[in-house]
Write a structure and sequence with these properties.
Radius of gyration: 27 Å
Number of helices: 10
Largest sheet: 3 strands, antiparallel
Strand order of the largest sheet: 1-2-3
Distance between the termini: 81 Å
Shape: rod-shaped
Structural class: mainly alpha
Number of strands: 3
Helix content: 55-70%
Order of helices and strands: EEEHHHHHHHHHH
Number of domains: 4
């Protein structure tokens, strides 16, 4: 198979378009162009064509992975799931299989662009800023596919829950009397739903003036 034309893409930087004589267009990265010694007029034997086609698929997956990470941070699991997801048009096949997606994830991890530990810290800080406690943050890390061995490190970097609990109680109660058991229960339940532990909730209620015997 002869390469009819090899030229850089005018739309995507770093991409090369390899036009084969049968009309096929392979989208390649600069590394593939160099590695295969490609050029206009080059003849490719069957083995070279097969290897080049496979390299083009891998380059396409890597390019999509970079595009996804550029849009927003992702965990490795989220990235792999997006790369292997079936398109909305059910007649089309997924971009790639799991093996190719995992290879792209490995490549990005090697470059330092995909880091579950850093992503876990980012998610934890975002949730904490919204007033959520450790329990709710763990739920969010689980939902996003962050490995459990990253959770503790992400949570350890957060400040204590006191300030967030106090701010929530001030906003929630707005001068209501904690002597009313219904008020106390609603406040405690709301904090529990936000992922705070009972010992932190009870300490917050004490700071707000509730006595233990009132609970």
């Amino acid at each position: 198979m002869r390469i009819r034309k090899l030229a850089p893409s005018v739309r995507v930087g770093g991409r090369w378009l390899c036009h084969l004589e049968d009309g096929t267009i392979l989208r390649l990265g600069e590394s593939e162009v160099v590695a295969f010694g490609l050029g206009t007029g080059k003849e490719l034997d069957e083995a070279e064509l097969s290897a080049l086609t496979e390299a083009a698929r891998a380059a396409q997956v890597r390019e999509k992975a970079v595009e996804l990470l550029s849009a927003r941070p992702l965990s490795r699991k989220e990235l792999v799931e997006k790369l292997t997801a079936r398109p909305r048009n059910r007649e089309k096949e997924p971009l790639c299989g799991r093996e190719a997606a995992e290879a792209a994830a490995d490549w990005l991890e090697g470059l330092g662009y995909l880091d579950d530990g850093q992503y876990a810290r980012t998610v934890a800080e975002h949730c904490a800023a919204k007033g959520y406690g450790p329990g709710r943050i763990r739920e969010e890390l689980y939902r996003r596919g962050v490995p459990r061995d990253c959770w503790d490190g992400a949570l350890e970097g957060l400040s204590g829950p006191e300030e967030a609990i106090d701010a929530f109680l001030q906003k929630k109660l707005r001068g209501a009397e904690l002597s009313d058991p219904k008020v106390r229960r609603r406040a405690a339940d709301a904090l529990a739903r936000r992922g705070y532990r009972w010992e932190d909730i009870s300490a917050g209620l004490r700071r707000y003036g509730a006595e233990p015997e009132e609970w």
